[in-house]
Task: structure prediction
Amino acid sequence: MGVSGIARRSQPVADAGVECRDGMPLDGDSDGGEGVRMKELLTASRMAALLVCPRKHFWRYEVGLRRMGDGAALRFGSAWHRAMEARWSGADISAAFAAGVGDKSEIDEIQIATLSGMLAGYYKAWGGEPISAVFPEVEFRLPLASSRTFESAGKIDGLAKMDDGRLALIEHKSAGCDIAPDSDYWLRLRGNAQVMQYVLAARGLGWDVALVIYDVARKPAISPLSAVPVLDEAGLRVVLDAEGNRVLKKDGTPRESGDKEKGYTLTTRPETLDEFADRLAADTQARREFYFARREVPILEDDLAEFEVQRSVLARQILSCRGEARRAKRPEHGWPRNVGEMTCKYCDFSAFCLQN
Result:
């Protein structure tokens, strides 16, 4: 624990015994000892880290540092995926909610209320789907034809057989941006490396998938209110004067609005989490198109071919950076830093990385 909030693996990633030729590393074997060839995992998350910033990849995957506990957004995303896994396995809303909450140690009370409200809208939005069978959460670890060092790995959200016989890959997304049909969100998904990796893996597992079903939920922008009116037994708002007495109108009925100049104050209290969950549930059910979207996207062979080239390039880049790291004064110097507001703002390692 050299850095606050950052944990290190008990042992770093092996150097992979990279062979070099003319100063450039070849994609060679990793020797696990005792004659066993151990391959490294090339996941979509690892490739994404390398593309964002090679130095970030170094700290996370070469040294093995990781933050102690995920951020709030990641924790809620994990809870939503657990709920979706249960839902697509046939669970009712209560069972899906229980699966998403888990043992309550991973998400806080506000996130639990948010999950409740979101699931209420999701179950109302989507009834019977044109799907005859679903196999949720399919893990894979498959060899890469272009590499003797790495193998493809990950977990597919789900594989499905449509009623018309087509095979599909299901991808659950919880987004914090606009998911309207004309938004850029859908254009970006077409080139999503994670989905390309999953499609190739599904085919490697014997599923000749023909399309991807994107099942997207937009994270709510609303949150628990800090002040809601206090109501009396008759359901009327309570207004007090400067002395703390109930303010009445001329006809003797209670006043229900404040007046700063007269010193009349509308009595308020924080919104309870149950009330927030109910308000969010009502909003998600009333504005289905704002919160939920589902789209079938065909798989283009050209996109898959481009991704396979990119994946091979990234695998060789890892080996190249390792070679440079061995020649550098400090190993991290072999992994270029992509210093910028957007890359460093959300990086777990920026606090110490920017200080060299």
Notes: DSSP finds twelve helices and 14 strands in the chain. The radius of gyration is 26 Å.
